[in-house]
Amino acid sequence: MPESLVAPSPAAPSDAAARPRLAQRIGAWKHGIEHWCQRIEIAPDLACDIGSRRWLRGMATMLGLSVAAIALWPDFSSVEAATAVPLKARERDEFRSQTIAPLALGADAGRHMGASPLVRPLDSVPERPSVDLVATLGRGDSFARMLERVGVSDDDAGRIGALVGQAVPLDQIEPGTQFDVTLGARPAPGAPRALTAMNFRARFDMDLTVQRGGGGLSLVRHPIHVDETPLRIRGTVGSSLYRSARNAGAPIAAIQAYLQAIDKYVSLESDIRGNDEFDIVMAYKRSAKGERQVGNLLYAGLEHDGKPRLQLLRWGQDGEMVAAAGLAESRSTAAGMPVAGHQTSPYGMRRHPILGYVRMHAGIDYGAAYGSPIYAVADGVVSFSGRHGGHGNYVRLEHGGGLGTGYGHMSRIAVSAGTRVRAGQVIGYVGSSGLSTGPHLHFEAYRGGQTINPAGLRFVSGPRIDGKEKNAFDARMKALLNVQPGEALSSVAPALNASPGARREIDRLEPKTF
């Protein structure tokens, strides 16, 4: 069979070849439109050539765009949309119950509606027959103002004040005391409610109740048994006296008072050893209701190898801690540090840091932080307090026997002239007043009006107590040392079972009617 010859047909243009030609056409149209817009300038500046053909063409462009914008402006009709999470019937019921919940709790829900003509006001609204309140006596508040604030009538407030004043002075009721007050019905419409009962803690050892009976208001005392056994805490000093005392259960205030008391007789840094034992006795009260009240430090002791090194007892009207050793003898004691700092300049000749020439430095300078307290080194009387030349704010004390001390460059003075101060009392605060280059204390000492070197200064004091007080002092010391450590922490319940014959006189008093 002869082979047939077929002529090839012309190939159709491929897509790859058509795309560049289409892009070229679009590009040509785009450039043509840009050239036309540039030539015609359909959006000229309307602030120029006002009234010309060019300006009118721009105005027409603006109006056309405005019409198009208004025509395409969307309306404000609500648009329904499906919920983000489809709810089932059970979930819808749960949401409905939650929206009704405020009604069940006494609140309102939904829109507030005005009263209709069917609503008419009540002539009187029933009130609760009694109201229970808790009132607190604030600091600076008075007993009468507290009762007025609660809603007690003036007549009842006067009777209550007179009744309570028979048991405890009103101005001695501690701030923060809470009063449980029950007010009854009003005797007349618009009148204050009548007091039914009021209970409060008048003292640590007594509750008071004011109640209304057939004869009017009466006062009932409820004595509370209180045990006043002092709290004694003993322990070994170890690596830290403070931490050991805290671990033994001593309150922070008692430890601070203990350290301040013994610091006048021994050095806390070098004189106390790890195997020494501390002995702290403090006033302590326990009520039958479970409250505890910690009082002042009564005894501070320090022992070494079972023998007392130091024994201090609170004694006298001033409540000073007095050492048992040498009570009836005169003694010489070294002056303590007037400030917690370090010596920066000794007594003697030196070049003055401000004046620039050598002159006598008649004291010792102690560097300390600004505002640090300055203490009196011994008992004395303030002979000068105020501004004193280069000393700045200055205080001078007279200690008797011709000895005196001076304290300069204070930022603030804490005592006035004529005041009697005790050793360790704060008399001012470190500053940089007068001729001073920085905060420090300038400490001077005087004998017969002349300055002397304060280093090694000692004070001789006379007997602290006479022979008559010595026996009472020893008896008090023995009584405190007979207290067993932790004895005050035992249960106070057995004391409640005392026989009726042991009741106090206050327990036998009958309620009084006012």
From TrEMBL:
Residues 359-454 form the M23ase beta-sheet core domain. It is an enzyme of class 3 (hydrolase). The keyword Cell membrane does not apply. Its EC number is 3.4.24.-. Its cofactor is Zn(2+). InterPro entries: Cell_wall_metabolism_enzyme, Dup_hybrid_motif, M23ase_b-sheet_dom. One of its GO terms (molecular function) is hydrolase activity. Keywords: Hydrolase, Metal-binding, Metalloprotease, Protease, Zinc. Signal peptide: none annotated. PANTHER family: CELL DIVISION PROTEIN YTFB, PEPTIDASE-RELATED. This is M23 family metallopeptidase.
